[in-house]
Amino acid sequence: MALLDVEDLSVTFARRGQRTVRAVDGVSFSVDAGEVVGLVGESGCGKSVTSLAIMGLLPRQKGVHIGGKASFDGTDLLQLDARSMRDVRGRDVAMIFQDPLSSLNPVVPLGIQVTEVLQRHRGMKGEAAAKEAAALLDRVGIPDPRRRLKEFPHQLSGGMRQRALIAMAVACRPRLLIADEPTTALDVTIQAQILELLKELVRESGTALVMITHDLGVVAGMCDTINVLYAGRVIETARRRPLFAEPHHPYTVGLLGSVPRLDAGRGERLTPIPGSVRDVLPWPDGCAFAPRCHRRVDACVGEPPELVLTHTGHSYRCVNPVTGPVAPARAQEEQA
Amino acid sequence: MFRFIVRRLLQVIPTLFGLSILLFIWLHRLPGGPETAILGERGTPEMRAAIRRNLGLDEPILVQYGRFMKRLIQFDLGTSTSTKREVTTEFLQRFPGTVELTVMAMLIAIGLGIPLGYLAARRRGTIVDHASVAGSLIGICIPVFFLAYVLKAVFAENLGWLPSAGRQDPTIGATRITNFFVLDGLMTREWDAAADALIHLILPGLALASIPLAVIVRITRASVLEVLGEDFVRTAEAKGLTESVVRRRHVLRNAMLPVATSIGLLTGQLLSGAVLTETVFAFSGIGAFLADAISQRDYPVLQGFILIIALVYVLVNLVVDVSYTLIDPRVRVR
Ligand SMILES: Nc1ncnc2c1ncn2[C@@H]1O[C@H](COP(=O)(O)OP(=O)(O)O)[C@@H](O)[C@H]1O
Ligand SMILES: [Mg+2]
């Protein structure tokens, strides 16, 4: 059994006087213990909403409807009441977010923001908690942790702030860590460091990681399995190597084409996918990508495409898939 | 922090100085001086002139101002033209009552306003929210003296739960030290006196609290709503922290900055605005005395009062600034 099994997750937002938004529309994926799984897709495709739904962090109010299942270790998180979910969050499942500055409380010293998790879930107090907090900051590569504990978020650099948030997330050795675009708000050099840190942490602790990103370049270096999302649906799932070597969905191929490569020459242009997700919301019943797809055929409209499973465990939803290796150069880069 | 406070206090001096000039000139330009108040419309020009000379009002305004400042430096506010007593003495006797009333009103307003505002924001769109928004609108609209009459009629005269007038039951025979009756009672361990003074504060305190309560509810609600949408609240929730820790440490602490500012402004307003409420409850604070002073053109009393109010505003603002630096490390001073 997988550690996390998301089945047919759907989230709709209904607002009075506005069109109902189906932000997540039947997403399924699973995460094994210790596995690194990528959720990749353009901005607005429902990645954050998916992760917030799993965490129970979507507003519990009229108009927000969540369907499907998210089984963590056999328990459906979506069925837990608010109080039990508080026990799970931060202890078994932790999360880090995109913008480290706004994700930290500006008026509370860093030390308290770390120790409050230790106190909540591990019952640690006073000096023991402070010691553990310093050890955690040290572990995520923050120098002089004792002094840093007394400081406030605005006194830290962007990279240090994200490291601090990672320290808080791993404080209780969760079995699952969800990272929602953890490097998007950071400088390129810092991005690489943070990714390296995450990789190292999950390798050492055996924590499973769901890595959310719009950037295939990020998942290329670290994910075991990759799920590509489009307009609230998973349109392709594969292990890392086959996905990069032989993507089947035209959208995935397009995403690969728009990965900025460090080895690309100056003159080389990226080949972005024309249009954006927003152009096609709400999507018709068929394939949501059809309006932007260069391989569109008549069968694309009407029924949503069935999930096709290949013998390699690669699955996709497309009636006119790309076959054969498309990006040999990238496949090699992958093996390196 | 200490240096910051001293620096701020020194900055106050020029402010008060400027203010005193403005007020002095403004007061003396009001039509109808004390001689009219004393003599009515009938006095002959000679009698008027005599009174003005007597009070030193015939001299050039600069000379008058100079004399006023010279006395002020020695904490002498002059003699009331109507009661013929030292203004300082009058104030020391009457001001404590008003201060007690203001503190009571602010405690009520803060103690009810912040939880209500928080609840309204948390339960946004529900009946709790609508009720507190509507209620605060009523609180702002309703004239304070009218509310005072209603409270008095219902709770004092009809139900008889609370006293309808005064600051304390004189038959208790409480010992006076500072003229803050509650404080005196505590200091002398005359608990019944303290309790009685406290009970006398409830109705006028409630009436006076209505406007600041409404303002605090609204500001807290708006501020909490804003903070609830912040990423760090989501982080706190993602850590699985208990509701009370999220509320206190992450939401309210950030939401309190605008509330602290408004509390400062409201307190100053209350001190100067207690007049009508005090009249309704025959509460011997500064209110009635001041009303008399206005009709009597009692310049020394008015000047002294306005200066004291200005000083209170400045001090309350200083407290607000200090609380700012305590709440938010980003504005902390070196
Ligand atoms: N609270 C909300 N109310 C209404 N619509 C929302 C809300 N949160 C997200 N959405 C919509 O859901 C869709 C998916 O958003 P999101 O998951 O944030 O995308 P991303 O993949 O960039 O993380 C978007 O169209 C967004 O506008
Ligand atoms: Mg997002």
TrEMBL record, chain A:
<dbReference type="InterPro" id="IPR050388">
    <property type="entry name" value="ABC_Ni/Peptide_Import"/>
</dbReference>
<dbReference type="GO" id="GO:0005886">
    <property type="term" value="C:plasma membrane"/>
</dbReference>
<dbReference type="GO" id="GO:0016887">
    <property type="term" value="F:ATP hydrolysis activity"/>
</dbReference>
<keyword id="KW-0472">Membrane</keyword>
<keyword id="KW-0547">Nucleotide-binding</keyword>
<dbReference type="Pfam" id="PF00005">
    <property type="entry name" value="ABC_tran"/>
</dbReference>
<dbReference type="GO" id="GO:0015833">
    <property type="term" value="P:peptide transport"/>
</dbReference>
<dbReference type="InterPro" id="IPR003593">
    <property type="entry name" value="AAA+_ATPase"/>
</dbReference>
<dbReference type="InterPro" id="IPR003439">
    <property type="entry name" value="ABC_transporter-like_ATP-bd"/>
</dbReference>
<keyword id="KW-0067">ATP-binding</keyword>
<feature type="domain" description="ABC transporter">
    <location>
        <begin position="4"/>
        <end position="256"/>
    </location>
</feature>
<keyword id="KW-0813">Transport</keyword>
<dbReference type="InterPro" id="IPR013563">
    <property type="entry name" value="Oligopep_ABC_C"/>
</dbReference>
<dbReference type="GO" id="GO:0005524">
    <property type="term" value="F:ATP binding"/>
</dbReference>
<dbReference type="Pfam" id="PF08352">
    <property type="entry name" value="oligo_HPY"/>
</dbReference>
<protein>
    <submittedName>
        <fullName>Peptide/nickel transport system ATP-binding protein</fullName>
    </submittedName>
</protein>
<dbReference type="InterPro" id="IPR027417">
    <property type="entry name" value="P-loop_NTPase"/>
</dbReference>
<comment type="similarity">
    <text>Belongs to the ABC transporter superfamily.</text>
</comment>
<keyword id="KW-1003">Cell membrane</keyword>
<dbReference type="InterPro" id="IPR017871">
    <property type="entry name" value="ABC_transporter-like_CS"/>
</dbReference>
TrEMBL record, chain B:
<keyword id="KW-0812">Transmembrane</keyword>
<feature type="transmembrane region" description="Helical">
    <location>
        <begin position="257"/>
        <end position="290"/>
    </location>
</feature>
<dbReference type="InterPro" id="IPR035906">
    <property type="entry name" value="MetI-like_sf"/>
</dbReference>
<dbReference type="InterPro" id="IPR045621">
    <property type="entry name" value="BPD_transp_1_N"/>
</dbReference>
<feature type="transmembrane region" description="Helical">
    <location>
        <begin position="302"/>
        <end position="327"/>
    </location>
</feature>
<feature type="transmembrane region" description="Helical">
    <location>
        <begin position="197"/>
        <end position="217"/>
    </location>
</feature>
<dbReference type="GO" id="GO:0005886">
    <property type="term" value="C:plasma membrane"/>
</dbReference>
<dbReference type="Pfam" id="PF00528">
    <property type="entry name" value="BPD_transp_1"/>
</dbReference>
<keyword id="KW-1133">Transmembrane helix</keyword>
<keyword id="KW-0813">Transport</keyword>
<dbReference type="Pfam" id="PF19300">
    <property type="entry name" value="BPD_transp_1_N"/>
</dbReference>
<feature type="transmembrane region" description="Helical">
    <location>
        <begin position="101"/>
        <end position="121"/>
    </location>
</feature>
<keyword id="KW-1003">Cell membrane</keyword>
<protein>
    <submittedName>
        <fullName>Peptide/nickel transport system permease protein</fullName>
    </submittedName>
</protein>
<feature type="transmembrane region" description="Helical">
    <location>
        <begin position="133"/>
        <end position="155"/>
    </location>
</feature>
<dbReference type="InterPro" id="IPR000515">
    <property type="entry name" value="MetI-like"/>
</dbReference>
<feature type="transmembrane region" description="Helical">
    <location>
        <begin position="9"/>
        <end position="27"/>
    </location>
</feature>
<feature type="domain" description="ABC transmembrane type-1">
    <location>
        <begin position="95"/>
        <end position="324"/>
    </location>
</feature>
<dbReference type="GO" id="GO:0055085">
    <property type="term" value="P:transmembrane transport"/>
</dbReference>
<keyword id="KW-0472">Membrane</keyword>
<comment type="similarity">
    <text>Belongs to the binding-protein-dependent transport system permease family.</text>
</comment>
